[in-house]
């Protein structure tokens, strides 16, 4: 027995999925949040039953990649829960009627019922149920209203004989149904709608966007810095250091185990960035340096996502994105990529053509550093605004320059934007908090083990003398072209695993201002971290990923060399 | 070949119009249809973005962004306040 959730994009399928299965998935207020199906189990007729959350689809005649996934999964389903948006009955019924025509057992959840009421849309569910011949349950996914009724109605979903209608015929039928079941009370635009239009019109939208982006950066930096200064640093300095110092003297202040666990003492003291032990640098980097910024970024991102601001931003920068062969919606993978390149890479699936996905993934992997990396760069260069500007300015120029080049060189054209702009919704704070917790947990779950692994790996390579050997071999490139000391190669090696640790490894090298800029830019560009690399292989295929990697290596070397000439 | 009052969505002046024809293949028609843009629908132009940017319309209470190429292929009849009242 297999049940699937189907519906138009951004109608709240994933919210209902979470309600039914207890499996938490990321939900946001823009179309295309779910790009792949998620499976969970729910109880149905006393049995464990598989429930699948599918990407949004407008029609069963698929026009996009996500829709193809959805229609393919439909064929294997035994029962369909069609989630429809009550605020846009007519368009949603198009899919509902197509599903009815397929003949599979079907139940319709008429979601966003509360929203429809607020907007003066009155729908008669009984009449709709009679006309369509399938159970109709009004629901409010976010609050859980109607979910019980939805579950008990599932048993009533029975199969019908498949029929088929022409498109025109279907719309005529939908028109009749809507006329009979829905009445609209005329009303003026709500405050949110007025704001919605102001933020999407160029004259007002662009200044608002600039101010918003500025405030976002300020807010993230303010929260990040304060969390570090007021919470994590006092914790590590006050509580953790005494414990570790005790352990250090217990282990005799040196030796192999001491070096692996605690690292080297720098003039008799622990230096959380430079000591490089599992219990010092290995914990301090992910928890006290990166987590505060990751937390702040994901909090702000979650609010913007649930409010519905991202699609508007996407439209405002649509013409800029066309210069690099993408359209405005490709900004969403980029923005997610700032959090972590892995979900950013997955989100490139909202793009329809291979060409767009290749450009978007390559540009993101090269020129969009993740929060972990940005946090460490800020930690390293925070007191020098000029160098910070140089690093992020160079990466922005690379993004635009390389994008324009790829757009010119790659065959084919990129399609235009065509997308529904989700209405603003007041974020539901429980949902924002839950999403933040999921992302932070995901971050801690992957970052801490990977950083520990990186630190351990480094100690082993050092003690085996491998680093020295690689440093000698690569010296012509690292020193000759990039102008960095040959010790910097250790950062480049660890950068394959974790970029944040890699940036941290630059700290003890006493680099000049220019060298720091070169090292940070090259580290960001030359190769994605191993987690992103694995996802990109899956998304682009080995052949395209090989090309993409080649572009990364070559452009990193070129940009690094140019910067070396400038500084 | 077309009525004089017909203009493309891109060149719609008054802001309000009714879709009369989509001059494109069945692929484009299906594509537009998925977001509810088809013959007979009333549309309101909300914004037009400079530098060959997209246009934003309202249709059935939702806002939709459309690239200019596509908007150019959607032919609409301009609606003035008078013509709406007489309908």
Folded structure, characterized:
The complex is a heterodimer of chains A (567) and B (87). In chain A, the strands form two sheets. A six-stranded mixed sheet of chain A has the order 2-3-1-4-5-7, with helices on both faces. Chain A has a two-stranded antiparallel sheet with strand order 6-8. Chain A has two domains: 2-184, P-loop containing nucleotide triphosphate hydrolases (Rossmann fold), CATH 3.40.50; 202-566, no CATH class. Chain A is elongated, with a radius of gyration of 27 Å. Chain A has helices at 13-21, 65-76, 89-102, 113-118, 125-132, 147-153, 167-181, 191-198, 202-250, 256-261, 281-307, 310-316, 318-323, 331-339, 341-347, 354-367, 371-381, 385-409, 429-464, 466-481, 489-495, 499-504, 513-525, 530-540, 542-566; strands spanning 2-7, 38-44, 47-53, 79-85, 106-111, 121-123, 136-138, 182-184, 418-421. In chain A, strand 4, helix 3 (89-102) and strand 5 form a beta-alpha-beta unit. Chain A has 25 helices and nine strands. By secondary structure, chain A is an alpha/beta fold. Chain B has 87 residues and is α+β, with helices and mostly antiparallel strands. Chain B has one domain: SH3 type barrels, CATH 2.30.30. Chain B is built from three helices and six strands. Chain B has helices at 26-34, 68-72, 81-85, and strands at 6-8, 16-22, 42-48, 55-59, 62-66, 74-78. A six-stranded antiparallel sheet of chain B has the order 1-6-2-3-4-5. Chain B is globular. The model of chain B has no long low-confidence stretch (mean pLDDT 86). At the A-B interface, helix 3, helix 12, helix 13 and strand 9 of A face helix 1, strand 3, strand 5 and helix 2 of B. Strand 9 (418-421) of chain A pairs antiparallel with strand 5 (62-66) of chain B.
């Amino acid at each position: 027995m297999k049940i699937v959730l189907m519906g138009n994009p951004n109608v709240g399928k994933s919210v209902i999925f979470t309600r039914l299965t207890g499996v938490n998935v990321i939900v946001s207020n823009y179309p295309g949040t779910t790009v792949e199906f998620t499976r969970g189990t729910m109880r149905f007729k006393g049995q464990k039953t598989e429930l699948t959350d599918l990407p949004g689809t407008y029609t069963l005649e698929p026009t996009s990649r996500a829709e193809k996934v959805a229609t393919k999964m439909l064929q294997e389903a035994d029962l369909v829960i069609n989630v429809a948006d009550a605020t846009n009955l007519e368009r949603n019924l198009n899919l509902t009627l197509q599903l009815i025509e397929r003949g599979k057992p079907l139940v319709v959840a008429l979601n966003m019922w509360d929203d429809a009421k607020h907007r003066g849309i009155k729908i008669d569910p009984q009449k709709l149920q009679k006309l369509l011949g399938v159970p109709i349950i009004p629901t409010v996914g976010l609050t859980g209203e109607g979910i019980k009724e939805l579950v008990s109605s599932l048993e009533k979903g029975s199969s019908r004989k498949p029929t088929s209608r022409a498109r025109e015929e279907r719309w005529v039928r939908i028109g009749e149904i809507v006329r009979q079941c829905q009445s609209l009370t005329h009303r003026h635009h709500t405050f949110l709608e007025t704001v919605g239009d102001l933020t999407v019109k160029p004259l007002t939208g662009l200044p608002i966007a600039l101010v918003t982006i500025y405030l976002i950066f300020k807010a993230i930096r303010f929260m990040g810095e304060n969390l570090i200064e007021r919470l994590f640093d006092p914790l590590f300095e006050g509580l953790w250091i005494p414990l570790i110092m005790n352990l250090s003297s217990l282990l005799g202040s040196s030796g192999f185990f001491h070096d692996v666990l605690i690292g080297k003492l720098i003039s008799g003291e622990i230096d959380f960035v430079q000591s490089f032990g599992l219990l010092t640098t290995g914990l301090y980097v992910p928890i006290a340096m990166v987590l505060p910024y990751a937390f702040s970024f994901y909090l702000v991102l979650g609010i913007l996502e649930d409010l519905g601001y991202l699609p508007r931003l996407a439209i405002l920068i649509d013409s800029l994105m066309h210069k690099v062969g993408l359209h405005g919606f490709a900004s969403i993978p980029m923005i997610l990529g700032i959090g972590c390149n892995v979900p950013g890479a997955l989100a490139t699936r909202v793009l329809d053509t291979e060409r767009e996905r290749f450009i978007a993934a390559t540009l993101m992997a090269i020129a969009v550093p993740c929060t972990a990396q940005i946090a460490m760069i800020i930690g390293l260069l925070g007191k020098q605004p000029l160098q910070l500007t140089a690093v992020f300015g160079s990466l922005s120029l690379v993004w635009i320059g390389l994008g324009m080049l790829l757009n010119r060189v790659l065959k084919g054209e990129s399609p235009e934007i065509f997308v529904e702009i989700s209405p603003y919704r007041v974020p539901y704070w429980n949902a924002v908090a839950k999403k933040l917790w999921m992302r932070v947990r995901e971050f801690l779950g992957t970052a801490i083990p990977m950083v520990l692994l990186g630190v351990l790996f480094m100690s082993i390579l050092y003690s085996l003398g491998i680093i020295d050997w690689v440093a000698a071999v690569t010296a012509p490139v690292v020193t000759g072209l990039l102008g960095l000391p040959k010790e910097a190669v250790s950062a480049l090696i660890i950068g394959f695993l974790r970029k944040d640790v890699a940036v941290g490894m630059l700290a003890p090298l006493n680099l000049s201002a220019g060298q720091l800029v070169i090292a940070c830019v090259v580290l960001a560009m030359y190769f994605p971290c191993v987690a992103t690399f694995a996802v990109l292989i899956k998304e682009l295929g080995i052949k395209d990923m090989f090309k993409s990697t080649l572009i990364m290596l070559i452009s990193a070397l070129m940009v690094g060399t140019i910067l070396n000439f400038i500084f | 070949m077309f009525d004089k009052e017909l203009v493309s969505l891109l060149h719609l002046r008054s802001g309000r119009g009714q879709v009369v024809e989509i001059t494109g293949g069945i692929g484009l028609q299906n594509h537009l249809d998925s977001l509810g843009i088809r013959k007979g629908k009333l549309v309101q132009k909300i914004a037009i973005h400079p530098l060959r940017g997209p246009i934003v319309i309202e249709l059935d209470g939702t806002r939709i962004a459309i690239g200019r190429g596509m908007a150019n292929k959607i032919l609409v009849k301009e609606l003035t306040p008078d013509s709406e009242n007489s309908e």
